[in-house]
C-alpha cells in the first residue's frame, strides 16, 4: 500500500480534499463545531497529520472549488486487519449539505475499494440524515448494529 501522505489533494466533482495544514487554522476553527481553543485545535491538526504519516488515517479539509471556502473535515479511519475504512464528517450542517456529503461519500467509497484495495467502507451518519441514509441504502449500503452507521462491501 502506498504511503497515505501521498493521497492529497484529492478531487471529487465539486470538492477538493486536502490536508488540514493547507487551510488557515482560524478558518478551520470557525467552520467546524468545536469548543476547543485555537491552541488545542492546532494540536488536533498536528495529531491528525501524525495519523496520516503513520498510515493510520486519512484526514482532509473539504474545500468547494467554486468558491474556495472550507466546508468541514472528512476523516477516513483505516483498519487494515478488518479490511475496512470508516468515514466520519466534522461539519456544520448549514455549510456542508447532504448533497455535498453524498458526493464525497461516493468518491471515497470508490477510492477505498479501487486505491486502498479494502473490502469494506462504512460511513457514520448524523441522526438528521434520514434522506441521505435512504440514498445510501439504495446504493447497496447495508445497516450495521450501530443505527447511525452504514457499510458497503466491495
The total of beta strands comes to 8
Just give the CATH class.
Alpha Beta
The helix-and-strand class reads alpha+beta
Kindly give the count of domains.
Answer: 1
Report the end-to-end length measured between terminal Cα atoms.
17 Å
Q: Which stretches are poorly predicted, pLDDT < 50 over at least 5 residues?
A: none
Gyration radius, in Å: 15 Å
Strand residue percentage: 25-35%
Shape annotation? globular
Q: What would the CATH topology be?
A: Aminopeptidase
CATH 4th-level superfamily? Gcn5-related N-acetyltransferase (GNAT)
> How does CATH name the architecture?
3-Layer(aba) Sandwich
Order of helices and strands: EEHHEEEHEHEE
Q: Sketch the major β-sheet.
A: 8 strands, mixed
Q: Biggest sheet: strands side by side, in what order? A: 1-2-3-4-5-6-8-7
Total of helices: 4
Share in helix = 25-40%
Average pLDDT value? 92
